[in-house]
Amino acid sequence: MDEAVKNVIYPEEIDFHVKSIRTFRISSIGRSSWLDNHEILMKVHQQTILEAKESREEILKDSLILEGKIKVFVHNAYAILIWRNKILPELLKEGLQAPSTIVLYTIFFHEATLIGLLETLLFHPDACEALEETSLDLIDYSVQGIIRLIAIGQEGQEESTDEEEDREIEKHEKNLQFRIGLRCLSILSFLVDNLDRISLSAVGRLVEIHDTPCLLSEILHLRPWMRSGKQSLEKFINDEWIPVAGDEISRVTKPEAHAWFCLREILLNPRLFNSYEVNNFRQREISKCQGLLNETLLDQLPPLADLKHFLVTLAVSKDVGNQKEKKLLLEELPQIKDKLLAEISEEGLEKIVREQVEAIASTDFKEIAGKLSKAFNLDAMEDLGQESPAKASTCKQCGIPATKKCSRCLSVNYCSKECQVKNWKTHKINCKK
Question: What is the pTM of this model?
Answer without folding.
Answer: 0.84
